Input
Amino acid sequence: MEQIFVRILSDRTADYMQVSRELSELGWSGNHEYMCLILQITYLNQQNLSTKAICRYIKKKFEDSVSFLYQDEIVAFFDLTRLGKSQEEVAGKLVYFIRDTYLKAGYSRVMEGHMNLRRQYVQAKTALDVGSRKKPYLWIHYFSQVALTYILEQATRRLPGTMICHEGLLELKKHDKENQTQYMETLRVYLEQHLSATQAARELFIHRSTFLYRLDRIKEILQSELDDPEEIFYLELSFRLLEQEQEKE
Output
């Protein structure tokens, strides 16, 4: 079982039909649900605990699992269908062990079948890497919790956020700086309140008429009526991109 999974992770040209047959013969069916866990073992020597001992512990807790050392990390796959457990139940049984042994963990999403096993490894690896950077004080990270950050980082691999965000936002930012206005914040709150002028005014602690005046000026600068769903989505994404740029600085 371990050899099959090492081949899945290390050989990008692996014959997945053959891999699927081999796993099925071992009882890990193509219609079962699977999950991947990666454990970072940076501080393992502090606990005098070997990687083999950790793998044995996981196997003892979960018979229908396989765990092994791969690229200086422990990788574990769980057949949740055979285990008859959810991701939450498996994670719940490991949470204190992970914390008490100073490990850090990244969990993939739960997915069905064999074709996504390597991608689940990438998800778990991403959860661990991104989660450890964004929230280093946490021991356990889930891919679903870091997915948006991952998307934003992928989007800015070749161009910075300021170069792919909505151009109108840069104009608003410039206007705020030159005129001591608060149009960026006003628009951000307006979007957060799902385009409700009343709610946005309340959040900003200003009169509704004051808010509507600002909104008119914002629309004028953006050259937009803010009624296109795609543009609204682009603006919301652009705020995230600019926030990410600010964090980097």
Q: What stands out?
A: The longest strand covers residues 33-40. Strands lie at 33-40, 65-70, 73-79, 104-107, 111-112, 140-142.
